[in-house]
Design goal:
By secondary structure, this protein is mostly helical. The protein has two domains: 80 residues, lambda repressor-like DNA-binding domains (434 Repressor (Amino-terminal Domain), Orthogonal Bundle); 41 residues. Helices cover 63% and strands 3% of the residues. The protein has seven helices and two strands, in the order ββααααααα. It has a two-stranded antiparallel sheet with strand order 1-2. β1 and β2 form a beta hairpin. The longest helix is centred in the last third of the chain and has 21 residues. The two termini are 42 Å apart.
Length: 133
């Protein structure tokens, strides 16, 4: 990975190489989304991580990237994985949303008795998993 630690306006920042194939702006958007879902402002994140609010803005805009240490701390504070911030996995919430939509489409129009059977089966599977632990 190419990383330049060239100073910018008197501060050092990790500059993003746009020509390396990685879409840093998308990671910035994921960072912003995780922050807002966690109910944090840029200022709060900056205080938690010991960086300036401008640094957080730059991360979210895809202008610079957080250090590995800051990325790990940010993921922890936002209760997401570092992989999800970097776009290396589908966020679990997205998977659940897709599964829920698929399930709703599958059971739409089924009689009440069938829905009850499905619920009983789900409860059975949960109980079996609980017993294995």
């Amino acid at each position: 990975m190419f990383v330049s630690l060239a100073p910018t306006r008197g501060r050092s920042a990790v500059q993003m190489p746009e020509d390396r194939g990685y879409k840093w702006r998308e990671s910035g958007a994921r960072i912003r989304e995780a922050r807002t879902r966690a109910g944090l402002t840029q200022r709060e994140v900056s205080e938690l991580l010991g960086v300036s609010p401008h640094a957080v803005w730059c991360w979210e805009a895809g202008k610079t990237k957080p250090s590995a240490e800051h990325l790990v701390e940010l993921a922890s504070r936002c209760q997401v994985s570092t992989d999800s911030l970097l776009g290396r996995e589908v966020v679990e919430a997205e998977l659940l949303d897709e599964a829920e939509a698929s399930f709703r489409n599958s059971v739409a129009g089924l009689p009440r008795e069938d829905l009850k059977e499905i619920q009983d089966f789900i409860n059975f599977v949960r109980e079996q998993r609980r017993r294995k632990k």
